[in-house]
Amino acid sequence: MDEIRGMVLLLPGLQLLIDLLRERGWSVVGPTVRDGVVVHAEIESVDQLPHGVGDLQDAGSYRLRERGDAKLFGYVVGPQSWKSLVFPSRELLWSGHRDGNEVDIEPAQVDAPHLALLGVRSCDLHALGIHDTILARRAVADVAYVARREHTFIIAVTCSDPGGTCFCVSMGTGPVPDKGYDLSLTELADEDGHRFLIQPGSERGEAVLDELTTRAAGDEVLNSARADRDTAREVGDAAAQRMGRSLDTDGLRELLYRNVESPRWEDVATRCLTCTNCTLVCPTCFCTSVDRVSDLTGAETQRWRVWDSCFTDDFSYLHGGSVRSSAASRYRQWATHKLASWVDQFGTSGCVGCGRCITWCPAAIDITAEVGAIRSGEG
Amino acid sequence: MPSLAERQGTQPVGALVPRLFRVANRRQDTADTFTMMLEPLDGVALDFVPGQFTMLAAFGVGQVPISVSSDAMVDGPLCHTIRDVGPVTHALSRTSVGDVVGVRGPYGTGWDVAGGENLDVVLVAGGIGLAPLRPAMLEVLHHRQRYGRVVLLYGTRSPEDVLFADELKRWENLGVEVLITVDYGTPAWDGRVGLVTTLIKRAGFDPHSSLALVCGPEVMMRFTATALIERGVRPERVRVSLERNMRCGVGLCGHCQYRELFICLDGPVLPYARVADLLGTREL
Amino acid sequence: MRTIEQYLPEHPFFAGLDTGALAIVCGCATNVSFAPGEFLFRQGQPANQFFVIRRGRVALQIHGPAVGTMVVDTADAGDVVGWSWLVPPYHWLFDARAVEPTGAVSFDGECLRGKCEEDPRLGYQLMKSVSQVMLSRLTAARVRLLDVYGKANSVSPLLSPLLAEAEATWARPRQAGATHPGATNAGATNAEPG
């Protein structure tokens, strides 16, 4: 592609895009406001998107605010990442029936609905790529995840208003989506009006844009795509200057490996509740466990794959006790895995700088501050 | 364009679904340790290499990783020697001939006994650690001429806890030097009492030209590896078998991680040189 | 069989001693032998000797009302047995019993103590050897204290209803009226924790 195609949608054009996708069999999931938080829900209309909503995020703090404009994506990420749609927190693996000594095992049917994800931020896009590596491209793949990802249509969006806990620039994961999407949006709202530059990122995306072009009428698109491409680039550049946090990743893997006995781990343990919030909101965490569910007679049994967290007491249980019984060792495990061991295991950092773990920690623990303290502690 | 029919996938989850095996025989080895001999219901034998493990499921209770203890080079039932230490192993200890259990695997890295060709081979077992080493010993004995001196150093808790006593005698008769010690004994025991590391200086092997395979509780493996290396065995020729909490056995659940290593994928058998620093780290 | 003068210099315990010190030590040494069951020394007796085992096996025992008699250590060819001659009040803390026909070199501890007092250099060389062996035996004893092969914690009470359930479904059919030990009627939980 020598020239990146694009077109400019007005708000009715965005509605047309949603309608078009639904006609093609995709359920559209996008951001909505519920209970004072931006969460993902199935939508049919642009009216359901957050209009003029912004957010204020800091360590242990999340608030929505009214922007005073009409922007639909003028906030960053809420507590949910997209992982719960392709990697659900509970998934049936198999059912077993026992009759005396006859045991019958029935593998579960995989539920892989066609989902169009509207409004995927660059950090979350990278997180999906990381999960693709871990769950789809290793010796044993998560078959259900693979099926669901094949049925995922991604409409990414460039962040215009990064939050107080964002540090995607430090992690090289944003704020402009670079690859792995089908379509990418940049929202513009200025004297030239409220509009969306939309660009394809895949053949599927191009096909949708083609159909959009054919069906769009005058009040749905503009033709000034070229000029708007520069403006859109400025949105990304400006956002990159407004990161709320930063993390020095230079030699980070070696730093954490050699600081396995740093006193900082004991220090953070005086604050960390091991509540597992961080692992729940983190878009790259992937640890799971297996729940056994049986009826009273034990004749019917099911195995469910469920999310798990390395912060729980029994995560590392080994006949007699847990290997990691102290909070210090568990926080060390999570931070070292996320920022160091992950690189050896999967080739990239496990952190995409989305800031959720900082925002949603009830003790306001900030991973960038903890790692920064270890680095400066080396003097 | 996905049709309505294609909207739902119908693929099974594969690696996480157990195969059914029937208990063909069982043997009580000591007060708390027993051996199960399993036959596959579908008739397809489970091929493994010495050192690998399976995830055994007691239906209605749960699943645990257990090393395979049978002879890898001979057709026959799949054996697991298991210690009753928790609810799942207890449930397995209560199975009878004819009962059905679930098996997934085999998983993990093997002892790579062939790497000891032309070397002396020293197996150091602690407690139940003798079970995962049994297939390695049997492999050595199947190709006896490929190896130099063969030594088994075996430490366990008390004389009543000695496993495979008859087989140990058979191995001695085949020319294996077998040295046994217990942590404590009664006067009726006329064998050795003391830590298994004290056997290292007594056995007749050339440390500079040896492969050492070590299996047992982690503390025992740490001291044993150090003692072997002090005696002159090269660190890269000492292999240990590590253990961590496992739920899936295939590297997806994340439980068995040991810093950057997945014990179920990169282990359980690992070169000591690779993990020496990790073994020294508390609560890793 | 080699004489004491030929045997001792090659023994690692005496490797640090110079010729003069070795001569003194040899002067305090004599060959002894024990039949199986014979005691080298008994707990409580005055400790004025130590032994280097040349062949056979010696068991270190302790006895007590709850414990009976337990063997806590064994010594084979090349091992040194007996340390209480070095430390006041110079009484044996354990029994030492020959398990097999055993030959050893026995050292007059009282005599050697005297010689060490007179010649601190000899004393220091001997102490260096003694402390090395003591450290390795102490470490081994401490590791065995961990009881690494011992049984782990018993089943948590939280999980025993699950066990009872498993037992109830796993057990063979029973005659009416017979009770199964350990089975409870506690309702089975629906999900295994964690």
Give a description of the structure.
The complex is a heterotrimer of chains A (379), B (284) and C (194). Chain A has two domains: 213 residues, no CATH class; 115 residues, no CATH class. Chain A has 13 helices and 16 strands. In chain A, helix 8 packs antiparallel against helix 11 and helix 9 packs across helix 11. The longest helix of chain A is centred in the C-terminal third of the chain and has 20 residues. Chain B has a seven-stranded mixed beta sheet with strand order 10-9-8-7-11-12-15, with helices on both faces. Chain B has a six-stranded antiparallel beta sheet with strand order 4-3-6-1-2-5. The termini of chain B are far apart. In chain B, 54% of the residues are buried. The N terminus of chain B is likely disordered. By secondary structure, chain C is an alpha+beta fold. In chain C, 31% of the residues lie in helices and 24% in strands. Chain C has a four-stranded antiparallel beta sheet with strand order 1-8-3-6. In chain C, helix 3 crosses helix 4. At the A-C interface, strand 13 of A face helix 5 of C.
